[in-house]
Write a structure and sequence with these properties.
Blueprint (H helix, E strand, L loop, with lengths): L12 H10 L62 E2 L3 H5 L17 H7 L9 E2 L1 H13 L6 E2 L2 E2 L1 H11 L25 H28 L11 E2 L7 H9 L4 H7 L5 H15 L22 H10 L3 H13 L11 H10 L10 H8 L3 H15 L10 E5 L4 E6 L2 E11 L7 E5 L2 E4 L3 E2 L2 H14 L3 H4 L2 E4 L5 E2 L16 E4 L10 E4 L8 E2 L13 E3 L3 E3 L2 H9 L3 H7 L5 E4 L5 E5 L3 E3 L5 E3 L6 H16 L4
Length: about 625
């Protein structure tokens, strides 16, 4: 196939009529399906896509095919946190002194005998913990029957450091109440030695249980993301809970160890700084409805809030021109025509078209993101970062979906940042991480089964030869190519035993190249003929993959070569090149994220995932509450 280089793809006349009939097409990161499949055709296809509805309801397809069957995307679930279990301490009382080779490392301390005597005081003690923590606690103390947090009859320095760290949990966006332990009062004495020992051993167990919870939460997060939705896909991050207690029993650096359980990357630290700043802020915030739409002559209770914000930030020039009007109409809910010049001036100062209509952009420029909203976004971001590796790696590719950007980062420097298109709300892009494997030049587009079933099949039932004319290849389960016109498409529902792929061409849905990181979601980065989408601010427009405004730049970055070299490779038709370096790619979702200087930026929650994570966090907190 001869390639003519990059040219603007001209939409056939029939495509324009389809656009007018069905609205502006949305971008498909897995396909240019809305653009009449693309397909490299040089003539207008027969008919429109999608086909006009039939005048009469079609008969159900023969052979058991389901005419209305669709392949749906992942769902969101109502998060249910694991219930806590009461720790069964009876095993400790029955456990013999460790004598087996695997326990040879245990050397009883001077308080070892006191610990074994104290275990009896746990018989009626009600302490609840997560099942894995309860199991680890009993296993550890069965093999190591001695105090970690108590020396003699007092709390030792380890205990004091641990309690302080747990009490500072809010500085990491965690909930201090999740780690609360009743600390025996210092300096008290009792004539009842048994009662004192009972109090100390109960403190020992409670602190160990909460320290293990803290270590888990710091490393893995408080919720299991894969249980929230099929759009989240994160590998397990194993934590040796017994190993945590063993380490703490043999170190005086308790704070250092517990803090090391948190992610150790610059982004996490920048978010912590932002959180601390927000928590300490005495900001007297004014929250304005972000969806406000107000025209002159209309009334809204949100207007006085905006006028207050304008008056608060008046400079000398604006104050001289509009100070008197603002003072006189400061409490007005009626958008008086006298206020129109004020609003226009504010809009123009913010770089907007001064039309005098108060809409979301005007509100955002004046009110920004509320403190409460920013706090939630930062706390959510900290939780989400705990799902990722502690060291994000360098070099790496970082795609932040709410920001609609993709970056190549190496040695702490953002070498490339490009606009991106992500999945629309009905075809959301998943949140996961993987490793870049290959760059595919002038790629074929293997049409996903969901698109074949949901979007192609309705047309193919009435026009089975469409794919032949549109530049697509159809193969059967053995890989043998068959004419589309020879397939009885009406015989199939959600399970179609054929593969469809679009040949490389100027109009191919993937453009001139794609960057692969094989994953079960079939998501990758790629070029697109639909360049106009990059001009839009809201770019959730695809079928789920990530479209790049600068695909050549990203390909050059991951291959460690120049853009000129990429251009040369593109002259020679279809080919592939493996990425030999280890380059992780994060297909991430952060509504709060620091730039390379550490300044945290805030983005819209395009998929409404923050609220779903907040629900999961609330469910977890409710289970952990002593009253639950």
């Amino acid at each position: 196939m001869k390639f003519l280089g990059k040219k603007a793809t001209v939409m056939p006349l029939v495509a324009i009529s389809a656009t007018l009939a069905f609205g502006v097409p949305q971008a498909g990161a897995q396909g240019l399906f809305e653009m009449l499949f693309g397909g490299g055709i040089k003539h207008a296809p027969q008919g429109e896509f999608p086909p006009p509805p039939p005048k009469h309801k079609p008969k159900a397809p023969a052979g058991g095919g389901g005419g209305g069957v669709k392949i749906s995307g992942p769902s969101y679930y109502t998060y249910k946190a694991d219930r806590l279990v009461r720790i069964d301490f009876s095993a400790l009382a029955a456990a013999p002194l460790p004598a087996t080779p695997q326990d040879a490392a245990f050397v009883p301390s001077a308080t070892g005998a006191a610990f074994r005597d104290a275990v009896a005081g746990l018989s009626d003690y009600e302490l609840y913990a997560e099942p894995d923590i309860a199991k680890a606690l009993i296993a550890y103390y069965s093999a190591n029957p001695d105090f970690i947090w108590v020396t003699g009859t007092s709390l030792n320095s380890r205990a004091q450091d641990a309690v302080r760290v747990l009490g500072e949990a809010s500085s990491y966006g965690l909930t201090p109440a999740d780690y609360t332990v009743d600390v025996p009062a210092a300096g008290t004495s009792t004539t009842d030695a048994n009662a004192q020992l009972k109090e100390l051993v109960r403190f020992e167990m409670a602190l160990s249980a909460r320290v293990l919870r803290y270590a888990h939460d710091a490393q893995n997060g408080r919720v299991e993301p894969n249980r929230m939705t099929g759009y989240y896909d994160f590998p397990a991050k194993p934590l040796d809970l017994q190993g945590v207690l063993k380490t703490l029993a043999h170190t005086q650096e308790v704070r250092t160890y517990l803090e090391s359980r948190h992610p150790q990357n610059a982004e996490y630290q920048a978010l912590r700084v932002e959180l601390e700043s927000l928590q300490a802020s005495a900001e007297n915030e004014i929250v304005v409805d972000p969806k406000l739409l107000l025209k002159p002559g209309e009334t809204s209770p949100e207007l006085p809030k905006l006028l207050t914000l304008i008056a608060r930030n008046l400079d000398d020039e604006m104050g001289g021109a509009y100070g008197e009007i603002l003072s006189r109409l400061a409490s007005s809910q009626f958008y008086d025509p006298e206020l129109v010049p004020v609003i226009k001036a504010v809009q123009q100062k913010a770089g907007m078209k001064g039309d005098g209509v108060i809409g979301p952009r005007t509100v955002a420029s004046l009110a920004g993101t509320s403190k409460a909203d920013r706090l939630l976004k930062v706390e959510v971001a900290l939780e989400e970062l705990r799902w990722l590796p502690s060291d994000l790696g360098s070099p790496r590719v970082f795609i932040n979906q709410p920001a609609f950007t993709a970056s190549y980062i190496d040695n702490g420097e953002e070498k490339l940042k490009t606009r991106a298109v992500i999945g629309r709300t009905t075809n959301q892009t998943a949140f996961f991480y993987d490793q870049i494997k290959q760059v595919d030049f002038h790629p074929y587009w293997g049409v996903p089964q969901s698109i074949i079933v949901n979007e192609m099949l309705p047309r193919l039932r009435n026009d089975p030869g469409y794919l032949d004319r549109a530049g697509y290849e159809v193969t059967d389960s053995r890989g043998k190519r068959v004419p589309s016109s020879a397939v009885n498409w009406g015989a199939y529902g959600a399970n179609i035993p054929f593969n469809v792929r679009q040949q490389p061409s100027e109009a191919n849905a993937l453009g001139e190249l794609k960057i692969l990181f094989p994953n079960k979601h079939a998501i990758y980065m790629h070029d697109t003929p639909q360049k106009s989408f990059f001009k839009q601010d809201m770019r959730a427009l695809s079928h789920g993959c990530v479209r790049l405004q600068d695909p050549r730049g990203m390909a050059a970055a991951v291959l460690g070569t120049s853009v000129d070299d990429i251009a040369e490779k593109l002259k020679h038709g279809h080919s592939t090149e493996d990425v030999t370096r280890k380059i992780p790619v994060y297909v991430a979702y952060f509504t709060a994220w620091p730039d390379m200087s550490g300044k945290v930026e805030y983005f819209g929650d395009v998929y409404d995932r923050d609220s779903k994570l907040k629900q999961a966090l609330d469910a977890t907190e409710a289970v952990r509450s002593p009253s639950s």
